Each structure stands twice: as structure tokens, then as C-alpha cells.
Amino acid sequence: MEKALIVSEIVKKIRGKEVLKNVSFEVEKGQLLVLLGPPGSGKTTLLKIIAGLEKQDSGSIYINGVRVDETPPYERKVSMVFETLALYSHMTVYENIASPMVAEKKPKDFIDKRVREIAGILRIEHLLDRRADKLSGGERQRVAVARALAKEAEIYLLDEPFSNLDAKIRYALRTEFKKLKTILGKTLVLATSDPLDALALGDAVVFIEKGEVVQRSTPVELYYKPSRLDIARYLTGKILNEVIVKKKAEGGKTVIMSELDIAISESVLRDLQEIPAENIVLASHPDTAIIEKSVENCDGLKLKGRFLGYEYRGSEFLVFAEYKNHLFKALKYEKPLIDFNEPVEVCISREGLNFYNLDTGALVR
Ligand SMILES: Nc1ncnc2c1ncn2[C@@H]1O[C@H](COP(=O)(O)OP(=O)(O)OP(=O)(O)O)[C@@H](O)[C@H]1O
């Protein structure tokens, strides 16, 4: 596959602090790569370096196979939309979206078709005649994205394009955005701190933390096999199920201990024996856990707890159970018919379990 973008060993210091530490990744032509990371992880700085708006201390950027380290921004064929949006406030939305194409001296018909097409996908057709200074925050955001996408470029860089939008519009825009990407057939790099953007949109995801790439994978891999416990927690918020076990050698045998009174299936015991770590966190998403009055045949971890309630999430229920001050969560598609504080059984199935070394946080299985 042809590479639209290669980021190679980028190092950047700002005021003596290393904000990018040897960052490398590649983006294939037509791919949407999501750069995911907590605030302050270096995403904006990296996008600016790709666009040529900041200079790296070392390392190289290649666009369509050409090294562009010495190429000025306007010759890089890159279009960027910033988190802090700068629209031409005295112009209409139409003029704003059209402005890069006017500057490129594109024919009027072409401009009109493209403005309307992109405005349609981003659902801002009704705003085309409005002045930019009369828009809400969310509307400005969509116009800024539209303008960036209207520009002829090889690579589109989008910095937190959905950050000012409410949850409902965000959800709708993600879907539209995917469509837009297919229509344009262009390469996009989207920086976000929201795992849902990454999971919904990315062909590939690069997880960046404190200026370092810590995982590069598909969204599904990232979600189900995060390479570190802190990434798993970041991706799921507070709904990851976690159980700590310790291995101890006793009389030539390895004994598995847990602070919880937990039944561990033979298959998981075998997995634990094989892992070269003594303190292990077993972690899994709620979608591979079951909380019911009783659970037969649990291949994984099983414990008894008390029902705490549930949260309705639109299409499913997130069910909570407590055991010895630990909270366990499971996803269920029917409303649970269990009373508050009633005894329940929790089964965390082996199929969804990831094993992390408690001391290093690294995925060990
Ligand atoms: N001009 C600057 N002066 C000092 N520090 C800076 C400057 N620009 C960036 N930094 C620092 O560099 C690091 C990376 O910042 P950057 O904006 O690239 O991260 P980010 O992942 O895009 O975060 P956010 O999502 O909050 O914008 C941060 O620690 C930030 O404080």
C-alpha cells in the first residue's frame, strides 16, 4: 500500500521539555488515522509539525513519498483545521467554505457544487447565507471542518473537530464524517482525546501519551487488547472490571491468591501459571461479563455479590454488582429483574480477559 504520510522519529522540545519523543507512524493513502491521547499528550504539536507550522528538532515527515522537512506549509498539500477556530467573521458560511477554492482559482460551478455537497454532509446547508459571527460554537466547528475539507489537499489534519459539540450532534457527525471520508477518498489524520471518536472512525489508531506512541492498532484491537492497563482504563472510563491476583511459590507449587473470594476456572488458572509475572490484574469489558441471580457454567472468574442497580444506555443496560467494596459491571440487553441488594453471581468470561502485569502495567496475555 502506498503511504500518504510517514512520520519518522520526530523529536520536539518546547521550552526545554520534550513534548514529542521519537514519534513514528505511517498512514496509508485513503486511510483515516486517529491520533488518540489525553490532553497535553502532544497531538496538536505533531499536527503542526506535519503541516509545517512548527519545526521538529529531529526526525522527518514524508508526504506521498517526498521528504518535506524544508518545504513551507503552503507547498505541503496539507489542510488543517484547528481546535481554536478562525473563521472569517464578516463573511457568510458559503464564502468561508468557498474561500480556499476561490484562492485556488477553481471554476465557480465547481466551487458551488463542492460547497453544497460538503455542507449537505455536515448538515449546515441551512446556514450557508448566515454570517460566520452569527453562529453557535457547534455550528462554527462544522463550518471550520467544511472549509478545511473544501481545500484541495493530499492530507487533511483535524484537531479535535468535534470538541465543541453536544453528544447527540457528535454522534450524528461521526457517521456523516465516515461518509464524507469515503466520498472524498482522501487521507485524514484526526486528533482527539475521545476514545469513542477513535473507535467509531479510525481505520487505524495511534495512541499517544506524554509525547510517545504507546500503541498502534485497529480500533477493535485497541479496544479489546489495549497494550497497557492505563490505556484500557482510559478507553473504558470507569467501567473496566478488574481483579488482582498474586502468584506465590509454595512447596514446589504455584498458588494463586486473590483478596476476593473468587472461583477461577481451570482454563484461567492454566493461563495464570504460564504468565511470567507475580502480581497480575485480570481486566475485561462489561460486555464479556454477566451479572444474574445465578450463573451456570462460568468459564472465567466467578464471584458472589449484591445487586446495586443499572444504568440505561439507550440500547443496553449497564448492570452493577458489589462485592467487598469492589464494583463489577456487565452489559445486558434486557432490563434486569433483580431487587436492590439481592444476592447475584458475577461471571467474567475468559474470552474477554486481558492479563496485565500489576507492577509494570504491560499486557502479558
Ligand atoms: N507554546 C508552548 N509553550 C509551552 N508549552 C507548550 C507550548 N505548546 C505546547 N506545549 C506543551 O506541550 C505539550 C503538548 O501539547 P499539545 O498541545 O501538543 O498537546 P495535545 O495532545 O494537543 O493537547 P490538547 O488536546 O490539550 O490540545 C503540553 O504539555 C503543552 O503544555
From TrEMBL:
Membrane-crossing segments per the record: none
Pfam family, one: ABC_tran
InterPro entries per the UniProt record, alphabetical: AAA+_ATPase (IPR003593), ABC_transporter-like_ATP-bd (IPR003439), ABC_transporter-like_CS (IPR017871), ABC_transpr_MalK/UgpC-like (IPR047641), P-loop_NTPase (IPR027417)
Keywords: ATP-binding, Nucleotide-binding
GO cellular component, one term: ATP-binding cassette (ABC) transporter complex, substrate-binding subunit-containing
Keyword Transmembrane: no
UniProt domain ABC transporter: residue ranges: 5-235
GO MF terms held by the record: ATP binding; ATP hydrolysis activity
Name of this protein: ABC transporter ATP-binding protein
Originating organism: Thermosphaera chiliense
